[in-house]
Amino acid sequence: MHDVALPTNLAQLAQERWQTLRCEHPAKPELLRLLAMSDFAYRVLQQSPELANWLLDEEQMKNRDVPFPLTDDLTALSESDCFRLLRKYRQRYWLKVMWLDLVKGNDIADSIRYISALSERLIDAANRWAFAQTVKQCGTPLDESGEALAMMVIGMGKLGGAELNFSSDIDLIFCYPRNVSTQVGRKSVEAQVFYTKVAQKLICALNQVTVDGQVFRVDMRLRPFGDSGPLVMSLSAMEDYYQDQGREWERYAMLKARLLGQQTQHWQAFYNMLRPFVYRRYIDFSVIDSLRKMKHMIAQEVRRKGLVNNIKLGAGGIREVEFIVQALQMIRGGRDTSLQTPSILNALSQLKALEVIPPNIVHSLQDNYLYLRKIEQYLQAFDDQQTQTLPDSAVSQARLVTLMGAKNFDECLAILQNRMTKIRDEFSQVIGDEPLEHTQSDEAYTYLWLEGDTEQLVGKVNEEQVEPWQEALQEFKGALTKRKVGARGADILDKLMPCLLQQAAELSLSGNVLSRVLNIVATVVSRTAYLELLYENQGALKQLLFLTSHSQWIAEHIAKYPILLDELLDPAALYKPLPLNAYKLEIRQYFLRIEQHDLEQQMEALRQFKQTHQLRIAAADATDVLSIMKVSDHLTALAEAIIEQSVNLAWLQMTERYGQPQGSHEDAKGFAVIAYGKAGGWELGYDSDLDLVFVHNRDGDSYTNGEKAISSRQFYLKLAQRLMHLFNTRTASGILYELDTRLRPEGNSGLLAINLESYYQYQLQQAWTWEHQAIVRARLVYGQQDMRERFMQIRANILELPREHDKLLEDVTSMREKMRNHLSKDSDELFDLKQGLGGMTDIEFIVQYLVLHYAQRYPEMAEHTDNVRILACASKLGILSEQEQTVLSEAYCFFRELYHNLSLNRQGKCVAKDKQIHAMTQKVTEIFEATLAK
């Protein structure tokens, strides 16, 4: 295939590029082929045209040498020289691999081995240089025999398996053998400090983009605790982590772990530590279900990203071969130690030798796997981009057609589909899919759907619902005429609808609820993957009907964000929200699979994390698994986790550009977020906005430590602006939360991020009474411990200020009257739960007044931020009678639950004034008038 003549467009491109190189000798056909096939090769030859002669040297191209990229004296080698040498080395040898693949048709197994060996040499060289430079500053960590203790670099993924592609990024984990301080340096430092410096230098040497480009994109998210964990750990700390906290997915990840560089006496200790975590001593069939779930997650990711023609993640792609092999390795690897290898190809050979897989199946898997890896190599070699998606551009399609020896691009697709189908068949045999739950639907529902025979409804649904069902179906069919539905989609829809209608009838759904469900189907009807999900998982379909019958909010939420349909596959998780303290860890784990520098993907991930967990909370809420108080607790904990992750993302983006403010670091950013209102009082609802104020603890004289240094005050202002962008920008998944920052000092005219002490002075000297009322429910939801403690002290000081009683009464009552006049929807027949006379806001104003009036005498009144506990405290102190506290607490919780249930079904905020409502509001009004007249 590599002697096929170039098509006209590629031949012309090659000639044009050759002319620009201005080489002295005539164009060689092989060089022209390389220039036509690769934009990257053209760029390298433009910079270093002398490499053309090197490529033509057959002896040089035959050997697989991996020389050391740097000079011998690593201590004297400057950073700029080190970076340049590493990058020039990559350009030179990646050009060689490209020549072998695109021009010479080299065996792909040889190419990926060679790329992996070259990559390991580059990583090892960078590690040695980083170690030498850090020793120069800090001294050397030594073992008991006086030998230097080098940092251990663990290659993960394809690097660990020695299976790298042309443009693969590299997944690394760092550790060190012993916890010993350095010796013979300017100043002795602890091991953690020393090796963190080595790790930072190593990452910078490989990852940083310079005028010579980048060596590798370095991904450190597979390390213990992910992005929130230390950059490097001791072997013993790593062992403790995997024993106590290692997750199931980390077992699969560590199966590929391999130490890189020159072997030391400490390597065996690492492998001894890792082996029992990855491999079980018994035959472990539990991995099948776990791998199946992982595959579902990948399928979900493919749907989420809208990936098509992806030879890695698609059905029958590279990842499925990896799953087949890894599943069998983990099932049997504890007993058959020959399977304990990070290499896919070595593991396949061992599975054949052990007669776990028949020889013909091994040959088929290996042949198809290597073929797809070869195509992946081509795709990445075209422009040195990490991609596994077949090209859209005419030039790259022509390249692929030529390399595959096909007649046209359609034939390329057919060849690849044939190979991927064979892989898919083997994957289904080993991993399988969840058992399909199809039930034979009653033929009446088929006639109802296909023929529009509404007489079939008689006896199937309640008589009064026959007409609403007919209207719902007519409206749905009308909506379908405006949607684009392909042949495959129409076929699946015709299978799905009778099942859906039968289940809806069995659940006795009203026509109104049926309309909700059909609205969701109409939303996804042009996306066949979702129709298949509902048809092939009847349990998921049942959950959809069940949940939409309980809540219009859930129905609208799923219709708006169809990716949430994936959540219906696992009812055990759907109705079981995370523990309150688990949201922060869960979002960190969720972000391990998100590209660190892909802002758009990060913003989508934040929104999808929120939507997924809001759905789980709503599912538990709608089915009475959670009480109203617990629902708000979960929604608030979810919001706090998202705030923390957003701050971390914004911090990373800002520090990469400006450096860190002096005295700050990852775990003590000098930045905090104060939540007011519902978030501060643990009372968030599903559509609540967030009232936030941003503060920092740096003065105006300090600066950041980056090349583009700015004042710390300006840095925190930009950090707050970046947070606003992360939250308020409307993406395909909507906004994250509506952020309201008007409660900050001086409102909209004030600084978006203010020094914490300036915040205090404003509250002392300039704030209005209503601003102090707001502080009653203010709580610091993100920030380091010293800032948390300082804010609590400030809040207590403000709330405990002496106040003139008459003025306080006047300010509070006039503000309440003003709000009621502007916002209340009360009428003779309806009661506004929130702003109406005797409603929730009246109770909140009673609480705020009591805190501001009595906190100076009773500091306990300033301890809590939620209304119910403040009322309990007031009763305990004798400020309110026990009866008054009971009336107010019960009314507040009752109104909140009513308001919440109305929200779940989009029914506004007003209820009919029945006897119970009238009695409650009258009692609340009496207490309001009596309390605010004291």
Gap between N and C termini = 94 Å
Q: Write down how many β-strands occur, each being a DSSP E stretch of 2 or more residues.
A: 14
Number of helices: 39
Overall radius of gyration: 33 Å
The amount of beta strand, in percent, is 5-15%
Oligomeric form of this entry?
A: single chain
Report the major sheet: 5 strands, mixed
Q: What's the rounded overall pLDDT mean?
A: 87
Helicity level: 55-70%
Quickly give the structural class: mainly alpha
Poorly predicted residue ranges: 434-439
- Taken from the alpha-carbon principal axes, the silhouette is globular
Care to give the gist of this entry?
This protein has 934 residues and is mainly alpha-helical. Helix content is 58%, strand content 5%. It starts with 7 loop residues before the first helix and ends with a helix.
Description:
This protein is mainly alpha-helical. It is 58% helix and 5% strand. Helix 31 (712-728) links the parallel strand 9 and strand 10. Helix 37 packs antiparallel against helix 38. The protein is globular.
